[in-house]
Amino acid sequence: MNILVTGGCGFIGSNFIHYLFDTRDDVLVVNVDKLTYAGNLQNLASIEKKHGGSRYVFVHGDINDASLIMKTMRAHQIDAVVNFAAESHVDRSINDPSPFVTTNINGTQTLLEAARQLDIPRFVQISTDEVYGSLGPEGLFSETTPLAPNSPYSASKASADLLARAYHKTYGMPVVITRCSNNYGPYQFPEKLIPLVFTRAMQDESIPVYGDGLNVRDWIYVRDHCKGVAMALEKGQPGQVYNFGGHAEMANINIIKIILRELGKSESLITFVKDRPGHDRRYAMDFSLATRELGWTPDHDFASGIRETIAWYTSNMKWLRDVQSGEYRTFMNEWYSERK
């Protein structure tokens, strides 16, 4: 299978590419990434070294570039598209929603249209539980839960999902949509909660907590999510939505305390700050459909997943320092220079 992965240098996309090469020996992966601040070529340096030019191809580009997307799909005889490319940070979407509309909505439509014109046999749209809005103290999001996004980010992802659904209903495109709960694991950009807490705790800096810290999320280890996406790619029913979750509901404040305890740091580092606008109170996923139809269940509970995550960051402090300092951009420039 020749797979076009968009946003493959980001957190989840790079983990997905690693998962593919760890579990399959019959794929060609073409990675199209714009390399915004969250895209990091270092995430895939080992893949490039081992498989570059044979089973792995990197294309620096924007998913809104219709000509580039068509050219790339044709050149590599793409069989499937997996769209991870997205602006994904809620706080950034509150400050400026426009890039989220451009990438998450317009970019998805560009990919869908190219795939439709070339009759690509499979299109997987990667989405998020945030499109469902906020839950009360009880209940779970299912695939039939009405969409009720509460931030510009989640609204843009919901819009992309509806476009994907429309391409299936209108044109008969074999589109599958996946929605996951909060991911954590290796290569996550340190603006996100878990790597942010790790980084600030290691430096004995204050850790900001929105509101009362009791906002609840269901956490999924990123490799479990990648396994689910691979199953949806291979076995998902066209037009279907599949939820993936970690069966690990945790309040943000408890996540922070667990990390501090694992690192031997004091809870006095915790600082409560003003809550952000439209902050959803609780997410939790019913992933029973994915279990029934795909045979998917998560392999990690939160205790094992967070230990693996902390161990990875502890062993990869240079990666973290390079991201914090911006040095990873230098790596990208050197990478390009070597190929001129």
From TrEMBL:
One Pfam match? GDP_Man_Dehyd
Q: Which EC numbers does the record give?
A: 4.2.1.46
| Domain spans labelled NAD(P)-binding | 4-309
Which coenzyme or cofactor does it need? NAD(+)
Instruction: Specify the domain of life of the species encoding this protein.
Output: Bacteria
Give the protein family.
Belongs to the NAD(P)-dependent epimerase/dehydratase family. dTDP-glucose dehydratase subfamily.
UniProt keyword Thylakoid present: no
Keywords per UniProt: Capsid protein, Lyase, NAD, Virion
Matching CDD domains, A to Z?
Answer: dTDP_GD_SDR_e
Q: Which GO terms describe its molecular function?
A: dTDP-glucose 4,6-dehydratase activity
Q: Which InterPro entries match?
A: dTDP_Gluc_deHydtase (IPR005888), NAD(P)-bd_dom (IPR016040), NAD(P)-bd_dom_sf (IPR036291)
**What is the protein's name according to its record?**
dTDP-glucose 4,6-dehydratase
* Gene Ontology BP terms: nucleotide-sugar metabolic process
**Organism from which the protein derives:** Desulfoplanes formicivorans
Give the matching SUPFAM superfamilies.
Answer: NAD(P)-binding Rossmann-fold domains
Q: Which reaction does it catalyse?
A: dTDP-alpha-D-glucose = dTDP-4-dehydro-6-deoxy-alpha-D-glucose + H2O
Keyword Chloroplast set for record: no
